[in-house]
Every structure is written in C-alpha cells, then in structure tokens.
C-alpha cells in the first residue's frame, strides 16, 4: 500500500515537471518580442493569412514588436520603426485604435507588418475606378481604400505574393 502511494507520487511529480518544462518553453517563445495583448491576435492572423498563401511568417526568427502608442500625432494612425540593432517595431495610434472597426484595425496592422516584416514599401497604384491596388498605399488621398470583407482576400493575396 505504501509502495503504491510512493509510486503514484513519483509519477505525479514527473508529470508536473513535464508541464513546467513545456509551459516555460512556450513562455520564452512569446516573450522574444513584446506585442501588446490587443495586437497579438492580428499578429497571429497575419501568420495564418501568410500560411494560406504559402508564405511562412516566423516571428521567432524575425521578431517584430507591437505597441499601442499615445504619443503619435493625430494624423499618424500607425508606423513601422526600423531599428538595425533591435526588432522592428509596429506602433499603432491608441486613440485611432479605440474608435475604428475590426476591419480597419486589421488593415492598419497588416499594412505596418507589410513594412516591418515583409519589408514592403508604399505602392499607390490604382485601378480604373481609382481604387488602391494594394494594402500598401501611402494614404487615402493617393487612391481610394476599398478594403472590405468582400475585397480583403484579394488584397491579402497581393500583400503576401507581390514579390513572386
Ligand atoms: Zn505605410
């Protein structure tokens, strides 16, 4: 009876050790670059959208930080800061973030990750109707932003596959 109890405890501790090791590994991966909780879902979505188009987005290998920022000027909705010594950094204007739709949030984060992760520059090409051809357009004054639930798939095709 005593032997049996010891045996069970032994297994229990072994199991706990495994959980501890696994949870530590998971944590260290996540903390390699800081991403605000409110942005992390869209960073994950960016990975998924890339994967669906055959593009591997590896934020462990090439980390990008993500911050909601209160110091950006009112006209700046978001920004990608390049830094040769540290991970590139996506800054999102917090007050803009707090008043726009989920789709506008997605557009903005994907645009900045287009700069920070995909190393894309601005592209202001437009179609016959004056609509932007790319999520990477420089501003809404350059062309009409037609990003919507209906058009997002083709915009994301362009975003991930433009260099192929
Ligand atoms: Zn831009």
Brief synopsis:
With 164 residues, the protein is mainly alpha-helical. Helix content is 45%, strand content 10%.
What does this molecule look like?
The chain is mainly alpha-helical and 164 residues long. The protein has 2 domains: 1-31; 34-161, 3-Layer(aba) Sandwich (Collagenase (Catalytic Domain)), CATH 3.40.390. It contains 5 helices and 3 strands. Strands 1-3-2 form a 3-stranded mixed β-sheet. Strand 2 and strand 3 (88-93) form a beta hairpin. The termini are far apart. The protein binds zinc ion. Zinc ion binds at residues 111, 115, 122.
Give the name of the CATH architecture of the largest domain.
3-Layer(aba) Sandwich
Mean model confidence by pLDDT: 88
What distance lies between the first and last C-alpha atoms, to the nearest angstrom? 68 Å
Please give the share of residues in helix: 40-55%
- What is the number of independent domains? 2
The gross shape turns out to be globular
Major β-sheet, in short? 3 strands, mixed
* Pattern of helices and strands: HHEEEHHH
CATH class of the largest domain: Alpha Beta
Low-confidence stretches: 25-31
Annotated CATH topology of the largest domain: Collagenase (Catalytic Domain)
Strand order, main sheet: write it out: 1-3-2
Beta strand %: 5-15%
SS content category: mainly alpha
Q: Report the strand count.
A: 3
| Rg (CA only) | 21 Å
What count of helical segments does DSSP give?
Answer: 5
Bound molecules: zinc ion
